[in-house]
Design a protein that fits this description.
The chain is about 30% helix and about 20% strand. By secondary structure, it is of the alpha/beta class. The chain has two domains: about 110 residues, Quinone Oxidoreductase, Chain A, domain 1 (Alpha-Beta Complex); about 120 residues, NAD(P)-binding Rossmann-like Domain (Rossmann fold), CATH 3.40.50. The strands form three sheets. It has a six-stranded parallel sheet. Strands 1-2 form a two-stranded antiparallel ribbon. The radius of gyration is 18 Å and the shape is globular. The model has no long low-confidence stretch (mean pLDDT about 90).
Length: about 250
């Protein structure tokens, strides 16, 4: 809450000179913490909380959902009717990408080693849910890659001519082999992406409000149980965001 208003906070500090850019310092990286009961941020870095979201859902927007929004719309230029492949269906960015892409009119394919996560991704609106590495029903225009070394070769195999792979992380490792022949023969674009700008954050909140989207929240625990969430994250058990109740 800020000034009596329910808000969500843009999680990136201004760059030197007051510019708000996607690759500037994140709030926790500056020592401000993400589990504090009180925090000071620039007045222009808060956006009204969408009224249809509870606090745990709203807390998913500034990080995972903003990352997914930038990947889909800024980096890949997603338009209705395209096919999106989301690798690793259970993560916070991955579940956000599914919901955002479906709302934007895309056909979404997801992959996961977990049958349970594949079923839950279908419930979010995915058109197909495949075991990791399985052949996709059709090539993807856009691939959302958060897994890294374990799936990157599959990502390139699954991208159509002229398609785009957007990478924001590597939960399975940060080094991946690349078939250069496939890359240039299909004219595939590979783009890196980190977080999002303040303008993108405002656009994301507007998009979520317009489409009445609700982030997938795996679970919410009290601050004293933070180790439970850390354990679920490290084990890869979560589906959606892991949240902590501070107050």
């Amino acid at each position: 809450m800020a000034g009596g208003r329910d808000v969500v906070v843009y999680p990136v500090l201004p760059a030197p000179g007051g510019r708000a850019v996607a690759h500037a310092t994140l709030l926790p990286d500056a020592g401000h913490g993400v589990l504090a009961e009180h925090i000071a941020v620039p007045a222009g870095h808060v956006v009204a909380r969408p009224a249809h979201l509870d606090w745990a859902e709203a807390a998913s927007l500034p990080t995972a959902w903003l990352t997914a929004y930038r990947m889909l719309f800024t980096k890949a230029g997603l338009v209705p009717g395209q096919v999106v492949l989301v690798q690793g269906a259970g993560g916070g960015v991955a579940t956000a990408a599914v919901s955002l892409a479906v709302a934007a009119g895309a056909t979404v394919i997801v992959t996961s080693r977990s049958a349970g996560k594949r079923e839950r991704a279908l419930a979010l609106g995915a058109a197909a849910a495949l075991d990791t590495g399985a052949r996709t029903p059709e090539p993807a225009d856009v691939v959302i890659e958060t897994v890294g070394s374990a799936t990157f070769e599959h990502s390139t195999r699954s991208t159509r001519i002229g398609g785009t792979i957007v990478v924001c992380g590597g939960t399975s490792g940060f080094t991946a082999s690349l078939d250069l022949a496939r890359l240039f023969a299909r004219e595939i674009t590979v783009r890196g992406s980190t977080m999002g700008s303040l303008a993108e954050f405002r656009a994301l909140v507007g998009f979520v409000t317009e489409h009445r989207l609700r982030p997938a929240v795996d679970s919410t625990v009290d601050l004293a149980d933070i180790r439970t969430q850390a354990g679920r994250m490290l084990a890869g058990d979560a589906f959606g965001k892991l949240c902590v109740r501070v107050a």
